[in-house]
Structure formats: structure tokens, C-alpha cells
Amino acid sequence: MFRQTAEFTDWFAEQRTAHHYRVIPAPLDGLDGWIRDPDRGTLRHRTGGFFSIDGLEVRTDNRETESWQQPIIDQPESGILGILVKRFAGVPHFLMQAKMEPGNINVLQLSPTVQATRSNYTRLHRGGSVPYLEHFLAPRRGRIVFDALQSEQGSWFLHKRNRNMIVEVTEDVPVLDRFCWLTAGQIGELLMLDNVINMDARTVLAGWPEAGGRPPAPGSAREALTLSASTDRARHTDAELLSWFTEAKASHQLDRRAIALNETKGWVCGADRISHESGRWFSVLGVDVEAGSREVARWSQPMIQPSGRGVIAFVARRLDGVLHLLVKAHTEAGTLDVVEMGPTVQCVPDNYLHLPKSRQPDFLNLVLSAPNEQIHFDVVHSEEGGRFYHAENRYLLVEAGDDAPLDAGPGYIWMTVRQLSAMARHGSHVNVEARNLLACLRLMP
Amino acid sequence: MFRQTAEFTDWFAEQRTAHHYRVIPAPLDGLDGWIRDPDRGTLRHRTGGFFSIDGLEVRTDNRETESWQQPIIDQPESGILGILVKRFAGVPHFLMQAKMEPGNINVLQLSPTVQATRSNYTRLHRGGSVPYLEHFLAPRRGRIVFDALQSEQGSWFLHKRNRNMIVEVTEDVPVLDRFCWLTAGQIGELLMLDNVINMDARTVLAGWPEAGGRPPAPGSAREALTLSASTDRARHTDAELLSWFTEAKASHQLDRRAIALNETKGWVCGADRISHESGRWFSVLGVDVEAGSREVARWSQPMIQPSGRGVIAFVARRLDGVLHLLVKAHTEAGTLDVVEMGPTVQCVPDNYLHLPKSRQPDFLNLVLSAPNEQIHFDVVHSEEGGRFYHAENRYLLVEAGDDAPLDAGPGYIWMTVRQLSAMARHGSHVNVEARNLLACLRLMP
């Protein structure tokens, strides 16, 4: 246990130097263990396991473009992201792992206690066993705090879900090498630092039902959050929110069709990498990895690299004294059921630079030009370092006041933090970007 | 408005005689407006609209059989089932419609205010407009009470959903011919009569948040329900229930593959009808319909006729004074996302008569042999008369006491009525059979 976050920082720096890592970009052609199907271009592992990358055609009436084609990751199995919690002197502590992921800009980040695909824990790659997994598999002894099948990045994954779990135990838990206990308050501090808490940890932490850290300062956003937890002064009833969600699903369409990767319109499948002819959106590249602290010491894999840093933001506003978030009904290529509840803004601005301001994403300008005093946090986090290469997003909470319209159109609705958190307890309601913001927002100091 | 239910009965009898109906079984070959694809055997409407019937292969580890093939209805569009509510002298009244459906055993039943497929209300079949539809389409003036995309019979429909809505208005509402206002108490009485309230009305009524009828008698099941609404004495927390649901989804598989209808193993595609070679499960037959009170006066269509009367039952038990229902994680051919929360028992017993008792569905014997004093209700209702021909189910609530095990295995969990009702507010959580029981249970006198 760390009495102060500085002690953690020392420990974490030690972890970073204690092991050997090397991640080297490599051509897709000849990537060890991976096959490019000569007919369709599909990228797949020679065992048929892990994941594959193929082409997808998307048609929807809930995006800027009504139809497009793109490469997409198909990983049908769902894994487990689990955090073990134990109270010491009454204070909940989370067992976190310093974990190397090849896509991380700084190699090592803090991950959940267990972060394992089914291939991982059924030992497809013949590595070591997954520590602490027994706490998350039935029959369990611990108390279930949170357990939902949650979607992941719909721009790059087709229907991908992971089981997000928080389990609280009272028994003794041995702390293995590379693991440490952190309080909600400490994690809250670390969530305000760039690229420390990984995506898998953030999405699980969004399910933690208690507020973290010290009591909120008067007039702070956290005070407004606490307030929203204890009052019914929400702008909309839960029935109205669910109706808005139902309306969005019923009134929009999302049709997908599998296509051959090497016939995906607008995409160039080269020997080295797969990229869009405009240079926008993302590329598929290969990496060769050497690691001294993973289940296997050496492997190669394809990864997705976005074309620029994204912006993921909630525009917030106090209504009747309670902080409300402007939630958007988001549709992406891989969304399981037409829409999920997402942030107000979620995009890579570079992809829209060539367009006139009027055709850029709604509220992007409001978020990017917000004065400092409206910004509750502005922090850079990485996406899943196991699939995405140097994929960073700026996460912001902007309290915009009257600049944010009360009626932002049928694709948007104002919710309190308590209401959005309750929605997130049900799988497939709140997208991963919004859950990431929720984790920052609810645990920030 | 009817001061007494007897007045309704007179009105309803009048409706029955006021119009002309004829439903005549007809061979599938040559059914007016329908085509049997010569290669695959697919049954479809010549416009490409309404619905089609094709073959499906199912693989799952959550049923008696691990793999089977069957015909299934594909109706990708979702319609609206909407009930309009208005308070008269403070008492909520529901606007119900006496509606003819060709599959109804008694032709006429009470349906929601609006019961329309998208084909209906986009006028595919060139009939009249749908009355009261404007109350359910955005922008609406009324207050949304309930609005969810709910699944329908997974044994016969592939991924079918309808939007279930309850909208409360304060303005004057003209009562058209064939419509009437009924209170929750009156509907509760009618729900205890065989084949009066149709399936579409029952599934919507399950979303009504208030208890109906008179105050509960001491010691009655309704008192236990009321109690459950006001206490937290549930056996499991909501987090535990959601975890059980997540576990069921994550631990089971459900794979489907479209196959040609005329190559569906075990099924005989005749000129007249399609049936299973064993005579079990169901048949597909044709009907010619003449009606004087529908949008069009004459049409033909295929329908599904089950091989026998089904049993749909909740086994209940008081735990810590609160009525709990034994909910099962159900998988069916057409289930959208692996499992939904279903009744304790849901089957057509005739399909299992040839098996030894030990291989018959769990709790079927307990339900069928329950003494009278354990049975809170036992009533026969019809399924959707627009697609199912004479499809009747016995709906039962059996309070089994100690005969029902506290731990019935991982496929089952005990929930209070309040908890199951809250789950039903989210689409795709509670199946149509369980929602039907919920409607009976929550509105019964």
C-alpha cells in the first residue's frame, strides 16, 4: 500500500525499468504467425484464434456519411476485465497491475487485476496462467459489485464486448510481483495524469458505485455530482431517458455487410500496411514484440493506428443546481444494436480539417475553444494497447453554461451523472468512450 | 367508460357481431400474394414486405438439444404497440381496441390502442390509416410512461422486436368505433378470463408502473407484491441479478445459420403445410381471411400453429415475507443476445410426452401437480393472432413454498416482482412469456 501517490510513482518507475520490452513496427507481409488470405486479403492468425481483420461496408442514417467501407477487427470471443477490491481499515483498495502492452506510447500502464481474452485464459498461446482469474470465474466467493458485458471501440471493432467485473473480497490476497493496491482517491489522482491508467481499467472503474477521494469542495463539479446522487432534480425522468434511447434505436438504421478486405473502397492494402488513400482515419500496421514480463516473451501482431489524436468530451451544464451531461446517441461501424449512449463529442479532429466549420462535428468547436475556467479536466489517455498502436485521446469535461443549448436536437439528451452511471450498469447502453469519461469524472480528486 | 365489467362484456359481445369475419385454412401452395421460392422453399410476400419464413440451424449449450433445424419467421422491421392512458377523476384509464386477428381462437380480442407494423403504418398494403398513431410518433405531446424495444416469441421469430409504449395524455381524446376506456382494475379482471386481452396488450401492460385494482387483501399475493415494491428485502441485490444475467450471456453460446427451408432437417414441406415429421413442435399453414373491420377486407397469409397448448409459469416463493419469482435464463432459436430472463417453465408439454419424466422440463411436474391453494392464477391466453394460429398457453403463478429449492442451479435466480419489472423497462432483458406473466401478476384483482 502506498501512503502517498509519490510512493506509487517510485514503484511504477521501478516496474518500468525492471523488465525488458521492445516493440518494432514490421511489415504486414511476413508477420510471424499471421496469414494474409490471398483471395480476400483477410488478416488472420494461423491458429484461427485471437482476432482477424477484414472488410466491412456500413450503411446508416445516423452519421455524416450514409455509406462507407473500412477494415474492421473481428474478435468474436469476449474476455474478462476484472478488478479485485478489498477494504483495508474500511477504505476500499483496488488491486491494479503494471502491464506492458505493445500499443502503449509508454509501454507500461496500470491495468485491471485481470485482463484476459478467452484465448489468454484457455491458454491458446501456451503462456503462463492468468493470476487472480479464480476470483472472477464461477463459483466465486467474493461479493459482486459490478458485472456487465460492455462494448468496445465501435470504429475499429465489430460487435466486440468484454465482461467488466468488480469483485470485493474480505480474505487475504497475496500481492504478486507487478501488482499493487490503490485507493479510489489515488486512482482518481492518477486518472488526471496522461497515459497512466489504461483503457481496460478505466472502463471497469466506471462501474464503481461509490464516489472516490476526499469530500468535494463547495461549488466544485464533484459537489454537483454528489448532489445529483442524492436528489431527483434531473431534467428528465428515467422513463424519458429510456424512451429517448428506444426512439434512437427504432428510428435509425445500421446495416453491415462483410466484404473482402482487399476490395475495401478507398483503402490501399500494401505489403507494409493498410491505409486510407486520403491519409485520414487509421492504418493497419504490424509489430514485432519482445517482452520479459508477459505470458510469452516474443510475438508479432497487426495493430490499428489512428491518424491523429482524438477528442472525447462531455459538454456539461448545471440545471437546477445539478450537473448534467449532454449525451449523444452514437452509431459506429461496429455498434451491436444501432446506437449507444456516447459523449457529446467523439472524433479525431484531423479527419474533418478539410471540411468547412459548418460540416465539422457538433460541439467540437465549443469544446476546443472553451476557456480554462469551464474545463474540469483535460487529460490524454491511451486506448487498448493490445490492439491499438499509440492511440491517444484527449478526454475533457467542459461545463459550458448557457453556451450549451437546452434542446440540442433529437440525437442528444441531458442526463445527470447518476442517471448515466445507472445506464452503464446494463451492458450495451453506454459506449466505451462515455464510460471512460465517467470513470474520470466520478473518481477525479 | 364502463362502470362495471359486465357493461364491457355487453359492448364486447356487440363488437363481435357487428362485423363480418371469416378465416379459412388454405394450402400454402397458391396462397394469394405469397411465393414459395423454387430453390430454397422460402415463403415470402410478392412485394417483399410483411415477413418471410425460411430455415434456421441453431447451435446452443443452453437447451435440451445441442443442435436443431427449424422454420422461422423473419420480420426485420419493428412495429409499435402503444397504449394511450388518460386519467378520469384521477383514475388512469387505458384506451383499448376490439381487434380482429386471424389466428385468434375467438377472432376478436382486446388489443393496444395502436398495434401496427411499419408496413401497416407506411401503408404497404394500401389500407386505411392507423388511428391514434400520432400520439406515439415524435414529436409527441403526451408524457412517456414506458417505451422499450421488446423481443417476441423466440421459438418462432428471428430477432423480432416491437416497440412497447405507454403514453399518458391530458387532452380530449375522441373514442372511435371499436375503442373503449378501461381502468387497470377492469383490465386486471379481464386478464383472469381466457383469451380476452391479446398478447400485444399484455406485453405493453407489463410496463405499467402502478399497481392496479383495489387495495390488496391481507396475506394475498398482491399484498406481498405491494410489500416488495416498498422494501429492500430482496434475496439478491440488483448488482447480483445483473451479474447472473451477464454470466448466463458470457458462459453460453448461441450460433445460428440461415439454411434453405426445403432442406430443413426433420421438416416436411408439403403443398398444404410444413410440419415436423414427428408431429411435434409446430406447423406452417395458410389462411384466407375476410374481414369487415380491418384496413383491408380480404387477404391471405401463412401462419404458425403450435402442436399443442403450452404451459408458461412462474414458480414463486415468499422469502423474508416478500414474493419472489424463480426466473430462468432462457435461450431460444430467435433470441437476440444469447439469453433473456424467462419464466420458470415455458414449454408445450406434448412435445416431451415421449421422454421419461427425468428428461422433461424442470419444474413442469411441480407446476402441473400444484394443489389449488398454491395457484394464484391459471388462465389461458392466445399469442399474437397476426402470426400464430390458435396458439394458446396456460399462464400460471404457483406459490410453491418449500417445494421450490432456494438454489435451483446456475440457470435460475430468485427475483422480486419489483426487480423483474425494473429489468423489463430495459429492452431485451425479459422475454415475452415472462412479461405476459408480469402483466397478469401485477394487474390481477
Summarize the structure.
By secondary structure, chain A is α+β, with helices and mostly antiparallel strands.
Helix-strand layout with pairing:
The structure is a homodimer of 445-residue chains.
Chain A: H1 5-18, E1 21-26, E2 34-36, E3 43-45, E4 52-60, E5 67-74, E6 80-88, E7 91-100, E8 108-111, E9 114-116, H2 118-121, E10 143-151, E11 161-168, E12 179-183, H3 184-191, H4 199-205, H5 221-230, H6 238-251, E13 254-259, E14 267-269, E15 274-276, E16 282-291, E17 298-306, E18 310-319, E19 322-330, E20 340-342, E21 345-347, H7 364-368, E22 375-382, E23 392-399, E24 412-416, H8 417-424, H9 432-443
Can you walk through the features of this model?
Two copies of one chain form a homodimer. The first copy, chain A, is an alpha+beta fold and 445 residues long. The first copy, chain A, is built from nine helices and 24 strands. Chain A has helices at 5-18, 118-121, 184-191, 199-205, 221-230, 238-251, 364-368, 417-424, 432-443; strands at 21-26, 34-36, 43-45, 52-60, 67-74, 80-88, 91-100, 108-111, 114-116, 143-151, 161-168, 179-183, 254-259, 267-269, 274-276, 282-291, 298-306, 310-319, 322-330, 340-342, 345-347, 375-382, 392-399, 412-416. In chain A, helix 3 packs across helix 9 (432-443) and helix 4 crosses helix 9 (432-443). The longest helix of chain A has 14 residues, at 5-18. The first copy, chain A, is globular. Chains A and B meet through strand 10 and helix 6 of A and strand 10 and helix 6 of B.
